[in-house]
Specification:
Blueprint (H helix, E strand, L loop, with lengths): L2 E5 L5 H8 L3 E6 L9 E3 L2 H4 L9 E4 L18 H15 L5 E7 L3 H4 L5 E3 L12 E6 L26 H6 L3 H10 L4
Parallel strand pairs: 1-2, 1-4, 2-3, 4-5
Antiparallel strand pairs: 5-7, 6-7
Helix pairs in contact: 1-6
Length: 187
């Protein structure tokens, strides 16, 4: 059994996938969890790096608002916000945890910190959609596709504007979460 920290996750999808595999998993976010389960509300940086030493695996989903290249046209107006976002990404990557996965869409992390180890798509894990998802990995194997399906709908990209659009776009697909929990089940 591993102790798993799922950082910047309000949905509980990844956390619950690891719990189903028999691990102790807890999610952390500024928002309350949408699903009941072990969850800490607050700023993870205030907990300090020392706090996370007790975990065997950290899966990190830093906010992509100021990082994703889909918003590149606004980068010139968000230089300070982007610098802060990149500092947070580096803070997560530098946690003293044996295994780390950091997930984000195609973003400036690739040019400002380092290239991702892997780029996956939801259609490789049972969801007929496209949404390129980069993974930066430390001591973890690449994810192997589990259920390649037809359909290459760009639903996430085409979501209409709205109050909760960012929330819907940030959710991890269940098939990807289940693949992480089963394939990164390293004791």
């Amino acid at each position: 059994m591993m102790k798993v920290a799922v950082i910047c996750e309000f949905s509980g999808i990844v956390r619950d996938s690891f719990i189903k595999q028999g691990h102790q998993a807890v999610s952390f976010d500024l928002l309350k969890s949408e699903k009941p389960g072990p969850h800490v509300v607050g700023d993870v940086q205030q907990l300090g790096k020392e706090y996370f030493k007790k975990f065997d695996l950290a899966i990190c989903h830093p906010p992509c608002t100021h990082l994703a290249v889909s918003g590149a046209r606004w980068f010139k107006d968000k230089q300070e916000e982007q610098a802060e976002a990149l500092e947070f990404v580096q803070w997560l990557m530098d946690l003293d945890v044996e295994r780390i996965a950091l997930e984000n869409p195609i973003s400036v992390i690739s040019s400002k910190i380092r290239k991702p180890d892997q780029i996956i798509q939801p259609w490789q894990f049972g969801h007929g959609e496209t949404k390129a998802t980069c993974l930066w990995l430390k001591n973890l194997p690449l994810l192997e596709p589990t259920n390649i399906v037809d359909g290459r709908e760009s639903r996430i990209h085409r979501m209409p504007p709205g109050e909760n659009r960012w929330k819907e776009r940030s959710r991890t697909f269940l098939g990807i979460a289940e693949a992480m929990a089963s394939q990164w089940n390293l004791q």
